[in-house]
Amino acid sequence: MLNKNVSNQIPIELNSDQDEFHQCNPSKSDSTATPGIFDNSNTSKILCSQLFEDHLNQDDDEFDSLNQQLKDVLLTDNYRPSLIQAFSADMSSYLSHEKLTKNSRKMQQEYEQANNTERGFVFNTYIKNNIVILCLDKYMHYILEKIIEIGPSSYRNIILDQIFHSIKKLISDLHACKVMQKGLEIMSLSPQESISQYQNYIEFILEDSDFTRKLYTDKIGNQIYTKSLEVFEEKNLESLLQIFDKYILNHNQFSLELSTDQYGCLIVNKIIDIYPKLLDPKTKSTANEIIMRTIRNSSCLIRRQYANYIIQQLLEKGQENHKRVLLDNYLIKDFVSMSLDKYGSNVAEKAIVYAYPQWRQKLWEEEVSVSECSFRKLVNDQFANYPIQRLYENLTIEYRNEFIALLNRLHDSHFLNHHGQIVLKFALSNYNVKRFAQKVNQIENSKTTKLQEKNKQIQQVFEKQQKIQQNQYQYQQYLQQYQMMALQHQVLQQYQLNYYQSPTELQQQQYQAMLLQQNMIMYQQQQQIISPQFQQFSLNQEQFSFSQQYQLQDQMNQQALNNYQQFQCFNKGNQYQQE
């Protein structure tokens, strides 16, 4: 019994999950109900662990969703930066040109105002892996130019490196070529920030190969060379000019001529444009040789469809020494035949407009009006009538009268065709308009001169009135001062007379004689000083200097005081002798 009781006192250990699970399992009872899902112990364990894992996974999903929401606040909510909004804008091809242009400009504006963090996020997210594609895009290539211009140098170098790896594909594209030109411009300003990139582009541009020779006359490719002529420093510019020198009016094994090509002539025009900016003597000499070669071949170039633009460029932007050689030695002799040509007539017009007056006078006397036959040929030609009209506009009045007289003579003789009639109408209308303009200018000039004279007269009258008022005011002040001084002097004399009545009669006579003598001397000095000044003073005729009058009165008072002191000393001496 004892053992039995002791054994009954030992508590049952619930060490097993299975035993604990069986105690609360209703299927172990004697119930006849359908077994539940917890009837199998192994199944119940699996379900419990799966529920626990599902709960943990649900918490993880909620946590991830919250993190994603916090992360997407910068990108999707209303608080995200405007730069990212601009780059997230729809740039699909079905949008209108105005909408795409607006979005592109919005990107550029927002990039200028964004901070470095936003610029870095945009570059790494939208640009870094799509540089070549963006270069070829009509609207997105502008943002690459903006990054190259104002972005960090590291972003610029990444863009330029990726473009250089595909340069043979991109250099003939209109939009990608613009990105390369912007890169060249910025790198030339700060070459230390992009040393390797700048050197790669220089080596490619200075490479004289079959591929680059094709680019000289390519519609898009030659733009990188005209830009290089503009931004290269003297050393690289000299090398580039030496390459072009071989293909401009020179015989070469490749039969390449830039001056007569539609796009190659742009390179020659750029050389003429940059010539005044060159400082290195060697570089300037090479450019000068190219320009002089074009001048010597001007008679051929002015009749070519594209080469005539080179001569026009010389007339518009060339140096004075080049223009004078071209006008005096070549164009004036060839003016008639040049004006009769379809392309040469354009050069003839520019020559008349940009030439100096002596050249026009010489042209009129020696080439145009030398005979009626040559004048009639020029006036009636379908191309030459345009240079003749420009010539009439720039002639002096004397030569215009001769011009109209020749036209009237041809008109009376019925030698003017349709083009000649146009020149006649132009000349007469221009003549009448200029005469009317001259009359109007004369009338306006006369009006202005009359108004100016009236204004001058009014100004003079006003100045005179001011001077009169000023003189009157000064006269009143000086008069008051003079009256006060005269009054003081009179009081002083009266005081002296009263004081000197006590001495003897001899002493008074001596004093009066001495005072009279002193007054005579002072009066003479007064007349010498006052008379020339008094004659000048008047409000209408004379002016008087009261300042000198004041000084004179002060001298008189001082002299009277000295006389008084002398007489007092004399009186004391007599009293001492009497004693």
Automatic annotation (TrEMBL):
One Gene Ontology term of the molecular function aspect: mRNA binding
Keyword Nuclease included in the entry's annotation: no
InterPro entries: PUM-HD, Pumilio_RNA-bd_rpt
PUM-HD domain sequence ranges: 62-444
SMART domains, sorted: Pumilio
Gene Ontology cellular component terms for the protein in this record: cytoplasm
Highest taxon above the source species: Eukaryota
PROSITE patterns: PUM, PUM_HD
Keyword terms, alphabetized: Repeat
Region (Disordered) location: 17-37
Keyword Nuclease assigned: no
One matching Pfam family: PUF
Composition-biased stretches (Polar residues): 24-37
Pumilio repeats (start-end): 126-161, 289-328, 330-365
GO annotation (BP), single: post-transcriptional regulation of gene expression
Protein name, as recorded: PUM-HD domain-containing protein
Organism: Paramecium sonneborni
